[in-house]
Structure prediction request, 335 residues.
Amino acid sequence: MSSLRFFFDDRWVALDGIGRFAREVFPRLRDVSPAGLSGSPLSCRGLVHTTWFLRSPGRYLLSPGFNGCLAYRSRMFLTIHDLIHLHFPDERTAAKSLYYAAVVRPVVRASGCVFTVSEHAKASIVNWGNLPEESVVVVQNGLSAGFSSVGDSAKYGVPYFLYVGNWKRHKNVSVLVEALKMVTQTEKCLLVCSGHCGEDSATILREVGFPLDGVRFLGRVDDAVLAAHYRGALATIMPSTYEGFGLPVLEAMGCGCPVVSSNATSLPEVGGEAPLYFNPDSVDELVDHLKSLIAGNIDVEALRKLGLDRAKVFTWDAVGERMNDGLQRVRIRGC
Prediction:
C-alpha cells in the first residue's frame, strides 16, 4: 500500500462551477497531494499533461471533474457531476460526444470507481457507461460556510424572487419568466438574477415579452452578497428540467430562504420536503405558488424551518469522508 501515491487534480480549483467542489473537497482528503499540473484540465495540452503525469508507476490521480487521460486509465478516478453535455442538443456537440466516448468512458470503465453527486446522476452514469452500480459512488455536495441564515438581507423596496444559475435551455428559465409576467399583471414584485444579462437571457426575456424594468442582474458577486440575496428573497426559484444536483436549492435552504423548485431529476433529492414543487412544464403551477407566497397564504416560517433542517444534512465533511471511503477501497484493491 505504501507504494501507491494519490494526487488531486488541483487545476479545477481555480475554475467556476466544479471549482467550489474542488476547493471544499481537497482539504478534506487524507493522504492525497496536489498534482500541480498545468493547463486547462479539458484542453488537449491538459490531456497530454495528465497522461504524462500518470506514466510514473504507483501514481493515482483523483479529479473533481470529468477530464480523462489517454493511457494508464486504471489509475485515474473522475467525478462526473452530470451528463448534461450528452442529454441536451444545445449542449451536445460532436467534439463533446467524442470526448466522452473516447476519453471519459474508457477511464471510468478501467478504473472501476467514479464519483458523482446524486442518485439521479448515478443512474445516468451507470446506464451510459454500462457500469456496475457499485463502481459509482454518490458523494453529494455540501453547504459552504458563507451560506447561513445569519447576516444581512438584500432589499429592493418590493418583494423579489431570486434565480441563481445560467439561462441555458435546460435551466427552463423561460417558464419562470412567463410565470412572473403573469404574476406582475396584478402584483408588484421583481425577478433578481445572478450573473449578467447575456445573449441567452436577453433572448428569453425578449421572446416572453418580460419588461426589463422587472428584472435585476447582480453580475459576478461573492458568497456574502449572494447569501444576502437568498436571505432577502421571498423565495428562490429553481425551474430546471435537468440538474446533476442543484446547489442553489441547498444554498437557499441554508440561508433560510423558501424554495420553489421543479420536481425534475435530482432536485427532490436535495430539497426533500422543504420546497414547494411544481411540474417544470406547468407555468400555471408555478404561478399559483408565486401568488400564494406574495399573498401570504403559505406558512413561510414553516418553509424556512424545513429548509434549514434539510440543509444540515449536506456537509462538506461528509462529502470528504465519502470520497475518502471510495479511495480507501481503491487502495485496498491496489495492494
User: Anything to note?
Assistant: The two ends are 5 Å apart (CA to CA).
